[in-house]
Structure formats: structure tokens, C-alpha cells
Amino acid sequence: MGCSVGRLRGWWWVGLVFLTAGTAGRGQPPVWVSDADRDGVLDASKDSLGDGGWTWRHGAIVPVDLDGGMSDGQRKALARLLPIPTADAAARWKVEFDVPPDTIRVFAQNADQTWETFASGTTCSARDGLTLALTATRFADPQWDGRVRLTAWHDDSSTLLASVELRVAPFVMASSPQPAESVFVRAYLGRNDALVADLMEIVERAGAELHVIPGDAPYPAHHIWLQDAVEFGHAWTGRPDAPPFALPSNRNRDLDRFAETRLEDARVGVLTVGSYRPGYAAGTGGDSWIDWYGNLEASPPTLGHPFGRVIYGRNPATGAQLNPEVVAFLAAQDVQAPVAFDVGWLQIKHVDEVVSFLPADDEAWPYRLVVPDPRVAIDLLTHLAEQGHADAPMLSTYEEGATVASLLAEPENIAFNRELRATRLEPAYAALCEQLSIDPRHVIRLPVLFNPDGSARTPNVVNALVVNGHVVMADPDGPKIPQAPGAPGRDAFQDKIRELLADLPVEVHFVDDRLYHRWSGNVHCATNALRKPLDVRFPD
Fold first, then answer.
1. Strand pairing partners for 232?
2. Is the pLDDT of residue 4 over 70?
């Protein structure tokens, strides 16, 4: 049998549950059937859960309508108790669903095709049957696991005849290798024009749409960190039409609501989780950036984690971390178990400064973990000096007179970077590889040097935007090595990065993000992206 299809806030949803019943006191008991394979077609021969129960691989998913804004005309049948024409005239079933208040809305369809609220414990005639619509008005959270159990009882007894479990669609964060549909950047007139121009060309080539948030009101001109303002994801339904949702940051800034105020045409749902914590979100120093969403990322699917995992930053020295309310909410989705990562040594303390993911031509695990590695930078500078390029200029955009030799002649800074790598970076990456089931051979280390205050000395190329096979990175402003008399020098850092990424199916673009680097951020911090839903492949 086919299922009804409804439209919820502009998105198509599939009918979820059928209930078939035998006559009261006669024949077989009722049997619950749901859209367990999530294909939009209800088929009793393949969709019955039987004794297996609901799992992320198999079981119906209830769509989410946070504001209850779906009109009566949009509401469509999502569940049905099939009529039994041969049932006794007095045969009735009692249908119940035990859920916390303000979580699930259930509606019954009248004979004239209108809808009315259906309360748990309502009885229906076995002869007439029952048609229902179900939506969720909130996601799972620490107080509710998102499970919905429908039960059928004899109306005159306490005998349970049949039951079936459903689960509300989880909020699933997007990871950077997922296909991007829209890319966002904030205009800062006269300050980031070059970056915006580069993004326009690259994003168009990548087959996505660039949205430039105007540089005027209602946001202050210097509020340019779009990655920190919001995280995008989807209410995952197991289907490609999963609707997008935005999770605004808790920074107490108007820009955090740009997804709500500027993306109305994109039909993006907005959910609010957590509260403003001045000591962790004011952006004034110490741990006060740790609640910004540059400190919240998601990995692609990994072995044992078909949805990937959430990665958030923590400062071991102070115990500060990304807002615990947000972490608990993401954990309650039960699909992307959060992982803490050491960001305590960083000035801004954001995980996107030290972790990124790129696609790879590898059937076993088609991604690579990309990280900054001071040793790669130091070894390259040392090699260039040994090859007679000690006087090669570098960082000319940021430091007057800097050369390969001058950086190598800073023993304290070189020692700091070596110790940083050995005592903080490498242990953190080893732990992350173990938690994500990543082969350490799948880690790509790019040249980046840091300052003792935890800021990036060289532009941080790991803090990059990934959009449909294109990687947009900060121009590292590395050593300029002459190739021929009169010809401009080649950037040795750029060449090294292209060499390290040569085996990946990506095109690398280096862009002018000097404004952001001077303010302790880079391309990823400056941008954001709305991506297609995750196509989860469960292992056999």
C-alpha cells in the first residue's frame, strides 16, 4: 500500500505508521506496521519491525515541526488503523502513546478530510479504522530520548495487543566534506573585498551559491565571524529531503540570528539550545571565546560511527568547554556522540583552528583528517636555508623584513613550536584518531607556526572552507623562492601544501584573508555553509 505524503513548513514528509487489526476477540491480534525502511512506501511484507525493535538502521522516524506552524490544509496522513469490515459492530481498539508534554502532536482525520487533535487513550471502531498525522514539536534532549511508542489495547481490558516504537528525527550536524548548496560571508566594505571577490568565483565554480551578508545594519560592521554565529544541520529522516535546521550560537549577538532573519527563503528551521555565559562567550580573552561555534565541528562518517561524531573544544587547565547544555543536547540525539578536544593552549580556543576534514579517493574511508604541524613548517624552512634560500622573504604582508633565516633565528619560538607539537598537538591527534577510528596514516599535516600566546604566526591553512571539491585556504605568505631571473618567486608553503594534498580529489585555492588573520582567524572562521543532508550508509 502507498503512504500519504504531507508538506511541513515547505518540506515533504512521508507517512510513517500503519496499524492493522483483527476483530476484537476474534482472529489475529492487531499488527503495527511502520515505514521502517524509510522509503516512503508502507509495505507490511517488509516494514514490520517484528521482535527486532527500532534501530538507527531500521525503524520509522517522526518529522519535526518545532513551531507547530503546519496548517490544517498542509497536514497529511502519517498513520492509519485500517478498518476491519468483518469486525463485530462493538469491536473497538484503544490507541495510546506515552510521551512527555509538548513533544508529539497527533491528529485524527475526520470523514470530511479535516483534522482534529487526537488524545492518547482515544478509542476507535475496528470497522471504521483511524487515520492519524504525527509531528514532533521538539528534538530529543537530555530529558527525553525522542522515542514514541504506539500501543493498541482492547478498550475494555488492560490487555496489550500490539505496540511499535518510532523515534523523532535527530538533529545531525553537517561535516565539511558534505556537498554545499550555499556559502555565506559577511561584507566588510573596503576591508575584505578581495576575499569576497575570490569566493564569488570559487563558489560559482563549485556549483554552490554565495550569499553575502550586507555590511550595514542591523549588525555592527566588525561582526564578521559567520562560523562562530551558527551551526547548520538537518533533521535526519533517512531520506534526501531532510529539512535543514540552524543552531544559533549563545553569544548574545544579533549576528547569531542571521539564519533566522536572513534565510527565510531557504526555509531553514531554527532551534535554540543553551544560554549565554558571559565568561565563555563575551569574546574578551581567556576562555571567553570557547562557546563560539568555531569550537563546534563534526567529523564525516567513520568506522563504527555512520553519522560521524561531534568534536568540541575544552581547556584542560581550567575545565572550560563549549556550552555543556549544547553538548548534552547533541549527545541526546544519539547519533554523533560528542568528543572533547584540547584547545586550551590556543588564544581563541576553537577546534576549527586545529582540525579539518577533506575528501579522499579511498573506498575504505573516503576522508582525511587535516591538521597544522609546526614541525612540517620548521623542517621546510630548515631545508630551504640549507638549499641557499635563507634570505627568501616571507610573511611580508604581516611582518616587515621577515625571512627564512630570521624565523629560524628565533630559538625560543622554534622551541615553543616543537614543544607544542610534542606535548599538546600530537597527543590530541592520537586521541582523536582513536575516538574516531581513524588510521593515523590518514592524517595530513600542513605547515603552520604558532606564537606563544596561541595565535597563528603563519596564516592557518587548516582553518579552511571546503566546498564541493574545492578547498579555500588562507594565503600562507610563505618563503618566496625565485624560479628564474625577473620572474616572481614561488611560495614554498603553497607548493608544499599542494604536494601534501596532491592525492586528494580537491582543487586548492589560496585567498587573501589578511583582515581575518590579523584578528586571529582565517577562512573557515569567516564563512559558513549550508550543506545537503548526510547520506548515511550503515555497515552490513
1. 246
2. no
